[in-house]
Amino acid sequence: MSWLSDLFGAGRARELSAAPLPVLSGYADSSRLEGLIMAEALGYELSQLPLDRQLAMSVPAVSRGRDLICNAASQLPLTALSDGVPATSQPTFLYRSDSAQTPQERIERTVDDLIFHGDSLWVVKRGSKSDGSAYGPILDAVWVPRNRWTVEPVDSFTNRVLVDGNPVAEDSVIHFYKGDGLLARAHRTLKGYIALEGSVLSKTRNPIPLTVIQHSQQSAGDLEPEEIGNLLRDWGTARRSEDGAVGYLPFGLEIQTHGQVQSDLFETGRNAYRLDIANFMNIPAVMLDGSLSTSTLTYSTVEGQANRFFTETMPGYLGVIERRLSKDDVVPRGQSVRFDTSQLTVAPASPTGAPVED
Fold first, then answer.
1. CA distance linking residue 20 with residue 104, whole number of Å
2. Mean of the pLDDT values across residues 343-350?
3. CA gap 263, 209 in Å, rounded
4. Which of 67, 193, 320, 358 is the least buried, fewest Cβ under 10 Å from its Cβ?
5. Burial of 217 by CB count in 10 Å (0-12 exposed, 13-18 middle, 19+ buried)?
6. Lowest mean pLDDT among 84-93, 166-175, 234-243, 272-281
């Protein structure tokens, strides 16, 4: 960890190389969690808060889509190629690490960044330059949490990276860039889903339609404002209790309900948002549809969806990492870096089973 200490100081080096903290996400700082708690305490709707990864991950379709992509990517080994075949000498940082971050965790967190933000950052340790090379070979690499770094323009053509607010040497970092992430592309869809979930929660707490308590014709007269407030508050509390299906009204009052509960409207809306999120993440919608009956699935459809996921979805994330790691500041000129994706595609099954001899 000494090379991290040289770049960022001992304290910050330990934070960068540490394993994910318990309870809190390794991708978000604690201030965001405190903000959500304070917002809820003050009565603000979550859909009115600025959208970030932690809030987006509360959407089931996003959480499932993220896990599908990140889990698949983190299982794939990286290989340096020379003339289309594995290089004789492989860069060690591709398959090992001197920090608490394993290569698999490093890839998972990088892909997570690409999904939500569209870019990601590694800091690297380099060896001595040799043979007139402009860059020393990379010996180790560590993923940097999003809240630790920013990119700012220097001029019309050049950017520089700041970690903890301090500029760092260009050859000490690797910046991966994909484009707008999910938080930018799908912010209206995600907030719409969160608002819909709020409506579902409200209907769950108050399962009957709009309710009006009014005086009957036999009523002796209107209640005082304070009495009305107490009555509505007590009635609402009673409706949310375990025995809320049964109520009592004093003489002179009657209940009227307006409209009707349309639970299918919420289900239709949630399915529509799930489809939109699948499109934003470029994932076959059936892979995010937890309500799909397994009786409608055949081996053929499962195989087809899996192959679509590996041929349409994954290259959009893996390709960003492969192209950046193939540049001359990472591997020697003439070499490229690729994920070994041989295990990704699903071979079609023989309709009559495996061939055997008589």
1. 13
2. 57
3. 11
4. 358
5. exposed
6. 234-243
| Architecture in CATH of 208-260 | 2-Layer Sandwich (3.30)
Domain boundaries defined on the chain:
2-179+312-339, 208-260
pTM for the full predicted model: 0.72
Q: What is the mean pLDDT of residues 105-129?
A: 95
CB neighbourhood size of 12 (10 A): 16
What is each CA distance from 255 to 75, 197, 209, 215, 225, in whole angstroms? 60, 28, 11, 9, 18
CA atoms within 13 A on the CB side of 295: 0
Lowest pLDDT segment from 31-45, 54-68, 330-344: 31-45
For residues 256 and 248, what is the distance between their CA atoms, to the nearest angstrom?
Answer: 14
* DSSP code string of 214-265: EE-TT---PPPHHHHHHHHHHHHHHHTSTTTT-----TTEEEEEES---HHH
pLDDT band at 223 (very low <50, low <70, confident <90, very high): confident
Class of domain 2-179+312-339: alpha beta
Q: Under a CB-based contact definition with an 8 Å cutoff, are residues 144 and 242 in contact? A: no
Contact by Cβ (8 Å): 13, 142: no
Q: What is the DSSP letter of 312?
A: I
Buried b (16+ CB within 10 A) or exposed e, 253-264: eeeeeeeeeeee
